[in-house]
Amino acid sequence: MSRKPFIAGNWKMNMTVASGEKLINELKPLVKDANCDVCLCVPAILIPAMKKAAEGSNVEIGAENVHWAEKGAYTGEISADMLKDYGVKYVIIGHSERRQYFGETDETVNKRTHAALNAGLTPIVCVGELLEERESGKTNEVLDRQLKVGLNGIADVTKAVIAYEPVWAIGTGKTATDEQAQETIAYIRKKIGELFCPECAEKIIIQYGGSMNAANCKGLMAQPDIDGGLIGGASLKTDFATIVNYDK
Q: Is 95 a catalytic site residue?
């Protein structure tokens, strides 16, 4: 089964309207012939301006988080319907920084994922292990829990994207080897087959999210089970285009 590659950027808490517009205008001609889907997930306050900057291009604008409730007394939060109003298609859920700094759990990842899917958004659901969990041989155990709980009750898992982000390789300059990334993502695909169905496992897009950059993207993207990347720091500069054009 053919899976179309998907490269998404995660700006995190970076950029202003001016700097974001400048980057998108620089990227548009560089990625216009990409053979993959392209998205930049940006801070919520920048979504309207970045949507306008990306108009007429193949660059989708996504969000970095979403609340699980449709509305209510959740000061500072943003609902799926609010994102949908601005034409957002993708939203990152359960990023390790949300888990580390803001109390995200597998259970809240599950609630947010359901909210995104119910609104017609495509959630990019992040999973991955800490350094001590990898070194103690618990990677698969951690992934089993995150996938089972985080995706519980989803009717069609292929409407989600999974991003494997080894936490020890985010912002550290460390990257899993091509073989390590392939091995772990192949395991995730196998687990999706067990939790849902073999056809689901073959169809679902699984990204690598551990410091993919212009230098290592070709090797990572050559792996049979890696369908794209969730790009952090490299999405803040025109290097992002090199990753998007990994096959050229």
A: yes
Residue 245's CB: how many other CB atoms inside 10 A? 17
Q: What is the CATH number of domain 6-244?
A: 3.20.20.70
- What are phi and psi for residue 217, nearest 5 degrees? -65, -35
Count CA within 13 A, CB hemisphere, residue 20: 26
**Contact indicator for 38, 31 with CB cutoff of 8 Å:** yes
Q: What is the pTM of this model?
A: 0.97
Please say whether the beta carbons of 243 and 7 come within 8 A: yes
The rounded distance, in Å, linking the Cα atoms of 58 and 33 is: 9
Proportion of the chain in helix, strand, coil states, percent, rounded to 5: 45, 15, 40
Q: Which entry of 64, 67, 95, 133 is annotated as an active-site residue?
A: 95
What is the torsion angle, in degrees rounded to the nearest 10, for the CA atoms of residue 137, residue 102, residue 161 and residue 26? -120
Would residue 114 show up in a list of annotated catalytic residues for this protein?
A: no
Helices 178-195 and 139-150: crossing angle, nearest 10°?
A: 40
Distance CA 19, CA 8 (A): 18
3-class SS of residue 50: helix
- Residue pLDDT, tens place only, 69-95: 999 999 999 999 999 999 999 999 999
pLDDT in tens, 2-29: 899 999 999 999 999 999 999 999 999 9
Judged by DSSP in three states, 8 sits in strand
Domain boundaries, the chain: 6-244
CA distance 32 to 147: 34
CA distance 184 to 181: 5
